[in-house]
Amino acid sequence: MSTIIKAENLVFSYPDEPEGHPPVLRGIDLEIETGTFVAILGHNGSGKSTLAKHINALLTPTEGKMWVDGLDTSDPENLLEVRGRVGMVFQNPDNQIVASVVEEDVAFGPENLGVPPDEIRQRVDGALRMVGMYELREHSPHLLSGGQKQRVAIAGVIAMMPKCIVLDEATAMLDPSGRKETVDTIRSLNEDYDITVVLITHHMDEAAQAQRLIVMSEGQIIDDGPPKEVFQHVDTLRAAGLDVPETVSLLYELRKSGVDVPLDALSDEACANVLTKLLTE
Ligand SMILES: Nc1ncnc2c1ncn2[C@@H]1O[C@H](COP(=O)(O)OP(=O)(O)OP(=O)(O)O)[C@@H](O)[C@H]1O
Ligand SMILES: [Mg+2]
What we know:
Helices cover 40% and strands 21% of the residues. It is an alpha/beta fold. The strands form two sheets. A six-stranded mixed beta sheet has the order 6-7-8-3-9-10, with helices on both faces. Strands 2-1-4-5 form a four-stranded antiparallel beta sheet. The longest helix has 18 residues. The chain is globular, with a radius of gyration of 20 Å. The site of magnesium ion (MG) has 3 residues, from helix 1.
C-alpha cells in the first residue's frame, strides 16, 4: 500500500488573523493510504475546508509539511503536479459549471491541461459513463437536477485523471435523492477505479459509508478509525459538538439504562436486528 496524503505537524494560520489568535490547524499528523475512502466530520469552523485546501495546494502549511503522492506541496515547482493528482468538488454545483453543454463542461479541465483533442474525447466519454451522465452529454447543465449537476462536476474532475478526489460538503445543497446519487457515484469511483476519496460532510449516514472516519475539532484530529468504532465514542463526539447517528444514540441510551446492547449497530437494519433480538429474548 502506498501513501497518497501525508501531513506532519501541519500548522496553519490565515495571514489576516489577529496576533495571538490560535492557528486554524494546530499540528495535524495524518497519513492516508492510496485507494481509501475517508470521511471527515467536524463542527463549523473546525478546520475541515482549510485542511482540504492543503490537499491540493490551494493553501500551504505555515509550519510542518504536507505531501501529496510524495510531492511536497510547499515547493512551487510541484504545484501543477499536485493539482493534477487531486481534484476538488465544492458545495455549490452551479459555481462549478462553466459551459452550456454537459460534455463541453467536462472537457474544460483536460483542455486546460493541454490534453490532445482525441484523448479529451475519450476522457470525457469515459468520465461521463463513470458518473452515469453519458446519455445526457448534449444537454444544458443548467437544466439538470442538483444531483446530476454534481455528477457532471465530478466527471469534470475525473476527466483530469486525478488519483484522489476531495469533496468539500459536495452534497450539502442537494435533496436526499441528489445526495444519494452523488455518494453512490463517489463510492463506485472508489470501489471500481481505486480513486482515493476524501469526503467532508455533515451527514452521519454519508460518513458511515467510509472506510475511515476522521473527526476534527478546533484544528485538531480528535478521533480516527473505522466509522463503526468512532461512532461508539459518543461522549467524544458530543463534546466536539457533533451528533451521533440516531441508531447509535438509541443504543447508547439503552446501555445507560443498563440494557446490554452493542453500540456498533450503525445501519437501521442492524439496529432493528439488535432491538428485535432484545424483544424476543
Ligand atoms: N479566508 C479566511 N481568512 C481568515 N480566516 C478564515 C478564512 N477561512 C476560514 N477561516 C477561519 O478558519 C477557521 C476554520 O475554517 P474552515 O472553513 O476550515 O472550517 P470548516 O470546518 O470547513 O467549517 P464549515 O463546517 O463551516 O465549513 C474558522 O474559524 C474560520 O473563520
Ligand atoms: Mg468548510
